[in-house]
Amino acid sequence: MGILNKLDNSVEQFESGNIIITSMDKLLNWSRLSSMWQMFFGLACCAIEMMATSASHYDLDRFGIIPRPSPRHVDIILISGTVTLKMATRIKRLYDEMPAPKYILSMGSCANCGGPYWEHGYHVLKGIDRIIPVDVYVPGCPPRPEALLEGLIKLQERIRNQSLAKHIA
Amino acid sequence: MAELRTEEMILNMGPQHPSTHGVLRLVLTLNGEIVEEVKPVLGYLHRCFEKHAEAMTYPQVIPYTDRMDYLNAMSNELAYVLAVEKLLGIEVPERVEYIRVIMAELQRIASHLVAIGTYGNDSGAMTPFLYCFMDREKVLELFEIVCGARMLYNYIWVGGLSHDITPEFITKTKELVKYLRPRMKMINNLLSYNKIFIERTAKIGILPPEVAINAGVSGPTLRGSGVKYDLRKSDPYSIYNKFDFDICVGTGERGVVGDCWNRYIVRAYEIEQSLRIIEQAIDSIPEGDVQSAVPKRVKPVAGESYVRTESPKGELGYYIISDGSLNPYRVKARSPSFCNISVINQISRGHMIADVVMILGSFDIVLGCIDR
Ligand code: SF4
How many domains does chain B contain in total? Predict the structure, then answer.
């Protein structure tokens, strides 16, 4: 059973097998990290790699990540591409519309720091972290799907270790 | 009974919308479910290609052309490099020409697979998307063998190529050609001739040939309207005149000529033609050094050049003005998606909201190419 395997050393199971005891933190974190719904939202070239990652060859579904079109349904948002100033206001708004807890993964050099457009791109936001808080940065132009998967696993680890007392939604 | 009060409704679609293929925003004026006007709002992915081209040297611009239309980076590189070579007046070895054509055709297959897959997805069919991306992955693997990159390659250089191809590439390409034929048949059975899909796309968004020509529409979108115009045949560049292939046009096999289904099916058929070109080219690649014609410094004399090529999306052209220095004075890109999208208002008037999604998908736009 999922929860027993995943939380092995912190779960106590009673003899009859129907009752388990664990901490609230562990239970919440486990459920959050195992079904991170992702916003169906792509910006530029990195979005194509993101699509390739969610298609059958790399298969994001096995991490419980499925794309949803509305910000109201989602837990994570992958910023996949160049953020222009015109788009930045929209991203901020989408972020504000997401229910907490929410996580941000910044994918690719453009979202991290402006990428190839950092010098002459007068209209490119030099890093998405200037407007919304980022949890994981994935470098690359574009990052390979393996790199994106690694980033998502890092994010899962981060969620696994968060605690209710410390987490500020 | 009192008169019912009616008024127009303005609906905003995008820039975050699952079926606008990126960050396109459409402002729809609606009369109930019926669309009266569609106004595209661009600029959410403006990345100032022209400004970058002014600040970079000629070879440094190549990676930026990759990022313009990221689904067919090879075709973009090819067009730009051909324009620079025309300016420099250099001849490239035959081997380079062959490899370039093979790469451009492989890229066309990859791009069309994405177009087919995402179009299926737009119409509510998730499975073709998964199959198409699986096959695209096989094409990307070939690119990876030769240049290490999956999507944005910087592979085609001025006067040559960054790497020579390997024997492994040749065997794998032949395997791919064998593999893709039955797969395309399967995808056609799965999606193209699927009754539900045909109901969604046939007789929707009919684009008459005159309107298409007047608006400067090109590529599969134009050929879907029955116009036999393909720059690989009409104005051959590189060595396309050596190969034997057909121009696919919409024939009204289902629906009527110029509707969404015909635009879509042109892409499915073109994959077969690309496979034919690859088959002919892969066996006759001459020997040679792929970097023998690469100039030490790209510094053309003052002048200008324009080269147009048939990219998977349509007519892609680069206009370069040189002032004799190391940087181009000006580079203007004529991007196919930008011209194609301009007819959306004319052909979606009078359709339902849901049909606008299908019409938009049938253009196979890439926002990087529209906004640049
Ligand atoms: S990081 Fe590179 S691949 Fe990703 S959006 Fe920016 S330019 Fe495109």
Answer: 1
